[in-house]
Design a protein that fits this description.
Length: about 220
């Protein structure tokens, strides 16, 4: 049985018993509000709404849909970012095959889409070794470094640095990949992913990296 359906069944039985008094009639005194223990997942199961995995897939489809306008793409992307704030959903990017469609958007023509893509990458990998591994496997640290050092849009550049910072902290393979991707002039002695002060030095330099203004 679906775990949420099982919870719903238990909730139904418990509240049916609570609603009957000692003589089998009427409501028991001080009975708790029936709906107070219903979770969104249980309600979703009851009414057959889309799962969070379905919502993640749908959001990414909207962002990639050529017929969708920028406003709707950004709304969908914002919803996607909120969904992957949960580590379970972030880890579901792999079985849902959503990592590749996500990182492809780091190279999108529209700066706002690049910004949201970097933001989502940063959200997914933050304090999440599984997602950090995936980002390294996809070899997207260099892409983020390129955004952080050449992107003319300040907001996009800021999110790229955020994504890099989230990716490399306490994750040695990601920091190693970063050190190989940094431009000349960056510190090369910050090689310990657990050295937060050392990583902060790199991030501060990335934030202040000179970028040519767009024409």
């Amino acid at each position: 049985m679906d775990p949420e359906m099982n919870k719903l069944l238990k909730w139904s039985v418990a509240n049916s018993q609570a609603s009957v008094g000692a003589n089998g009639e009427g409501s028991a005194p001080n009975a708790p509000a029936a709906a107070s223990d219903l979770t969104p997942q249980m309600i979703n199961t009851l009414f057959g709404g889309p799962s969070e995995a379905d919502l993640m897939r749908a959001a990414m489809e909207v962002v990639h849909d050529k017929e969708s306008d920028l406003e709707n793409k950004l709304i969908a992307f914002d919803n996607f970012e909120q969904l992957i704030e949960g580590i379970d959903n972030a880890n579901n990017l792999v079985p849902l095959n959503l990592w590749k469609p996500l990182v492809e958007l780091l190279k999108h023509d529209e700066a706002e889409i690049r910004r949201m893509a970097a933001w989502c990458v940063g959200t997914a990998v933050q304090n999440n070794p599984q997602a950090q591994d995936q980002l390294v496997t996809l070899n997207e640290i260099p892409t983020l470094v390129t955004l952080a050092t050449t992107e003319s849009n300040p907001a996009t550049r800021k999110k790229a640095v955020y994504a890099i910072s989230s990716a490399v902290r306490n994750h040695q393979p990601a920091l190693d990949a970063l050190n190989k991707s940094l431009p000349e002039g960056y510190p090369t002695d910050k090689t310990d992913a657990a050295d937060m002060d050392g990583i902060d030095i790199i991030m501060d330099k990335l934030r202040s990296h000179p970028v040519e203004a767009s024409a």
